[in-house]
Amino acid sequence: MIALLRYQAALLVRSQRWLAPVILYAVFLGVGVQSGQPVLDSLAYAAAALLPVAAWLVRICAGNEPAAARGCTAAAVGPARAHLAALLTAFLATAALGVAAVLIVTVISDAASTNARIPVPRLPAGAAGLLAMLVSALLGTAVGALTNWPLLRSAGKAVPAMLLGALLLLVTTGSPAKSVLVDLTTGSREGAVPVPWAAVLVALTVAVAAVWPACVLSSRRH
Questions:
Q1: Cα 105 to Cα 43: distance, rounded to the nearest angstrom
Q2: What single string gives the DSSP state of each residue in 16-55?
Q3: Contact 133, 177 (CB under 8 A)
Q4: What is the pLDDT of residue 69?
Q5: By the 8 A CB rule, do 113 and 188 touch?
Q6: Nearest Cα to 211, choosing from 90, 98, 64, 112?
Q7: What is the pLDDT of residues 140-180, one digit of tens each?
Q8: pTM to 2 decimals?
Q9: What are the DSSP calls for the chain, one per residue?
Q10: Cis geometry, peptide bond prior to residue 124 (ω within 30 degrees of 0)
Q11: Where along the chain do its domains lie?
């Protein structure tokens, strides 16, 4: 699996297709996160913007390999394992992007509540931001796995479904993504740092439940 991850990572880097989602994410952060804003509010914004980026990176990794090369990889290690490596590569790339965003946002933001009256410690706030990023990365990977090859082959169906799925996860009550964002913004108002472990566990369960059928189906469509 390590060799497969290195192979998929090399494909992703050399394709330069990652530039579009990464640059778009940087633009979102540049517009929505300003120096001196409350740290938990800024981390919530950064985590929300990461979810569709994760789904986009999954789409890139799932279709990055030429058909002939995909066939060779599938013959060598099995279609399911090859597809799993692509999904894991997208998740790890998203997680790395999320970690970088948390570091930047935590440093430039104001370590205080929304009304600037209650101090908010940066280290616990950054840890909460990392958990929020993890939730977004897991759910974005799940959306990408369910709305791209091998489940959906047509870009005309896959892209709208991917965007709609990401949006619903961010706004639907009960979604772990919305839950963690609400926890961060509520904590910012109250000056208390949340620890959203429950959202992380639910997001992990959703991601596994989405990735597993995608990998199984990839074996049948090769």
A1: 7
A2: -TTHHHHHHHHHHHHHH--TTSBHHHHHHHHHHHHHHHHH
A3: no
A4: 75
A5: yes
A6: 90
A7: 999 999 999 888 878 888 999 999 999 999 999 999 999 99
A8: 0.94
A9: -HHHHHHHHHHHHHH-TTHHHHHHHHHHHHHH--TTSBHHHHHHHHHHHHHHHHHHHHHHHHT-S-HHHHHHHHHHH-HHHHHHHHHHHHHHHHHHHHHHHHHHHHHHSBSB-TTS-SB--HHHHHHHHHHHHHHHHHHHHHHHHHSSTTT---HHHHHHHHHHHHHHHHHSTT-HHHHHHHHHHHHHHHT-----HHHHHHHHHHHHHHHHHHHHHHHH--
A10: no
A11: 2-220
Encoded amino acid at 42, one letter: S
Q: What six digits make up the tokens of 17? A: 């297709």
Distance CA 43, CA 180 (A): 11
Give pLDDT < 70 ranges for the chain. 220-222
CA–CA gap between residue 62 and residue 33 (Å, rounded): 31
**Which amino acid is present at 168?**
L
**Total length of the chain:** 222
Are the beta carbons of 60 and 90 closer than 8 angstroms?
yes
